[in-house]
């Protein structure tokens, strides 16, 4: 009887893994089905129809209970991380530090987005005039929040 119980418990455990961790039809689900059905078959074969029927009913009830417990939110709250990340984006600093008309150079190719260095600050910027190659002098055209638009700098 121990072998039957182990087969059924492993089968139900594989069903839970299939249902919650590995969605879709995978080896865990197929293995769970095979182990559970084989455990019930073995109970019918080794212990007779009456014991087999009780094992089948118990397996169905245990499966329903385990799935119901697995779907409860409180069950998974115990396993969840409860760390909050309190971070912000550098939102208003760009407008204070970089002004329209400031000059700098590209660190990467702007196609049309890329990295620029302006006033010794590395920021992401967008080219208003197509592609700009790396290490090209640029001029700031507009600054809205953290969005910087630039164009190639041309001496007058």
How would you describe this protein?
The protein is of the alpha+beta class. It folds into 2 domains: 2-77; 93-152, Beta Barrel (OB fold (Dihydrolipoamide Acetyltransferase, E2P)), CATH 2.40.50. It is built from 5 helices and 5 strands; from the N terminus they run αααααβββββ. The chain has helices at residues 2-21, 27-47, 49-71, 73-77, 93-97, and strands spanning 103-106, 113-118, 121-127, 137-144, 147-152. A 5-stranded mixed β-barrel has the order 1-2-3-5-4. Strand 4 (137-144) and strand 5 form a beta hairpin. Helix 1 packs antiparallel against helix 2, helix 1 (2-21) runs parallel beside helix 3 (49-71) and helix 2 (27-47) runs antiparallel to helix 3. The longest helix is centred in the middle third of the chain and has 23 residues, at 49-71. The radius of gyration is 32 Å and the shape is rod-shaped. The mean pLDDT is 85.
H and E string: HHHHHEEEEE
Number of domains: 2
Q: Please report which band the strand proportion falls in: under 5%, 5-15%, 15-25%, 25-35%, 35-45% or over 45%.
A: 15-25%
Helix content: 40-55%
Distance between the ends: 93 Å
Low-confidence region ranges: none
**What's the count of strands?**
5
Q: Largest sheet, described in full?
A: 5 strands, mixed, barrel
Q: SS-based structural class?
A: alpha+beta
Total count of helical runs of at least 4 residues: 5
Give the spatial strand order of the biggest sheet: 1-2-3-5-4
Rg, please? 32 Å
Which term fits the overall shape?
rod-shaped
- Averaged pLDDT, please? 85
